Structure formats: C-alpha cells, structure tokens
C-alpha cells in the first residue's frame, strides 16, 4: 500500500494539536511496551467488542484509550506518518480545539464498525487507524484535489486526495471481504466506519461552518494546477 508523506497545501500555523496527539500516542504505546505488553494491560486499554457488548458502560472508556495505544513501534510509526500527512492541514482549517475534539471523539466511534460486524469478537483492537481514517474521509471532502506526496520530500510523483482515498477504500473493502478481520488481525470495519464518519463530518463542516470557501481557498494552491 502506498504511504502518504504530506501534501501541497499552504499551512499558516504550527499544528499544535497534531503534535500533542502524536506525543500522546507515542507515550501511551511506550508505557504499555515497557510494562511488558501483557494480555491484561492490553485488554484493559484496548477496545474489545465482546466486552463492549456485555458491559458497554464499564468498557466505554476503551473507545478512547484504544486510540492511543499501538501494538508496536511499526504500527505506531505508520500511523504517525498518516497523522502528519492529513492532520496538519485539517487542523489548520478547523483550528486545534475542533480538530482535537473531532479526532478523539468522532475517531473513537470508528471502533463501533468492528463491534457491529462482530459483537462477540474477543480480539482486542488498538491504534489510531480508525481516527486517521476519519481524517482521511474529511480531508477527501474538503481537499479532494490536493496533491499527496508518496515519496518523502519530493513533490512528484503524487496522487490527488480523491485518487488515493478511492484506492484505499477499495483495498479496505476487498480485504474485509476476502481476508476478514480475524484472519488478518486488521480492523477493516473500524477503518471503513472511520472513513464514512469523516465523509459525513466533512460535508457537514462545509455546509454549516462559517466562511468555509475562504478558509479552504487560503490553504489550497492545487486549484490552478
């Protein structure tokens, strides 16, 4: 799968919330790894569908803690690359407070995708992939023609945001149908749910937020190219 390392949008301020979220993910993962990543520790912080089915109130907090804990350094670094690729521009668009609230709050809802298709699953789910899928969905709506860098530090080659997200969503659907979550160990339904939530949030923001066209235009330089 192609990795995205950034875009061609003009960011006018430091993405403080994006940096804070990245540090929180790194710290949470480091603490769990240093503690030995025991089954009990992971289970206490991860979102486990069967636990949520049996005790939704008691395990509700795991919708949020699971976003920050990752299964290892490779999982963490991969997600942080996507966080910086999509998060900084979205944060510049909506502001740090809205960005942080949406990432944590709406991103947490993405885990319910895996719960809906497997409410009895005992497999713990961790990682910010659902929240990142949410960012990707929202990004596709507000910056569909942004140029996404697929090689570090180089402007070419590139993919338009809508091209990348179309290929990505097709891969998620194919993998979910042909391989499945249990066999692959990947929460495809969480990814798909996050992406759909992002699409809805992006449309709602463009429709109801104030001065959206101007804000988007200030960040975009892809329109004329």
Written overview of the protein:
The protein has one domain (6-219): Rhomboid-like fold, CATH 1.20.1540. The model has no long low-confidence stretch (mean pLDDT 90). 65% of the residues lie in helices and 4% in strands. The chain has twelve helices and three strands, in the order βααααααααββαααα. 40% of the residues are buried. By secondary structure, it is mostly helical. It has helices at 16-34, 39-45, 49-54, 62-68, 73-94, 96-109, 111-117, 129-142, 161-178, 181-184, 188-208, 212-219; strands at residues 6-7, 147-149, 158-160. A three-stranded antiparallel β-sheet has the order 1-2-3.
* CATH-defined topology: Rhomboid-like fold
Distance between the termini: 26 Å
What class do helices, strands and sheet pairing give? mainly alpha
Counted up, domains total 1
Q: Show unreliable segments.
A: none
- Mean pLDDT over the full residue set: 90
> At the fourth CATH level, what is the homologous superfamily?
Rhomboid-like
Give the beta-strand count.
3
* Helical fraction: 55-70%
CATH level 1 class label: Mainly Alpha
């Amino acid at each position: 799968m192609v990795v995205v390392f950034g875009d061609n949008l003009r960011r006018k301020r430091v993405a403080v919330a994006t940096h804070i979220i990245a540090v929180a993910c790194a710290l949470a993962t480091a603490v769990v790894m240093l503690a030995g990543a025991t089954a009990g520790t992971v289970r206490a912080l991860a979102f486990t569908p069967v636990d949520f089915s049996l005790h939704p109130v008691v395990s509700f907090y795991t919708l949020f803690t699971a976003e920050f804990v990752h299964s290892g350094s490779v999982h963490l670094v991969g997600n942080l690359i996507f966080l910086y690729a999509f998060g900084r521009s979205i944060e510049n668009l909506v502001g740090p407070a809205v960005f942080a609230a949406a990432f944590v709050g709406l991103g947490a809802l993405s885990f319910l995708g895996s719960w809906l298709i497997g409410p009895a699953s005992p497999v713990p789910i961790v990682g910010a992939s659902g929240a990142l899928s949410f960012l990707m969905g929202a990004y596709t709506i507000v910056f569909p023609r942004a140029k996404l860098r697929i090689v570090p530090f180089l402007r070419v080659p590139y993919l338009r945001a809508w091209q990348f997200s179309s290929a990505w969503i097709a891969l998620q659907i194919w993998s979910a149908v042909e391989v499945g979550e249990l066999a692959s160990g990947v929460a495809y339904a969480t990814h798909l749910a996050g992406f759909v939530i992002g699409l809805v949030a992006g449309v709602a923001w463009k429709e109801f937020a104030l001065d959206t066209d101007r804000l988007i235009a200030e960040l975009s330089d892809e329109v004329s190219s």
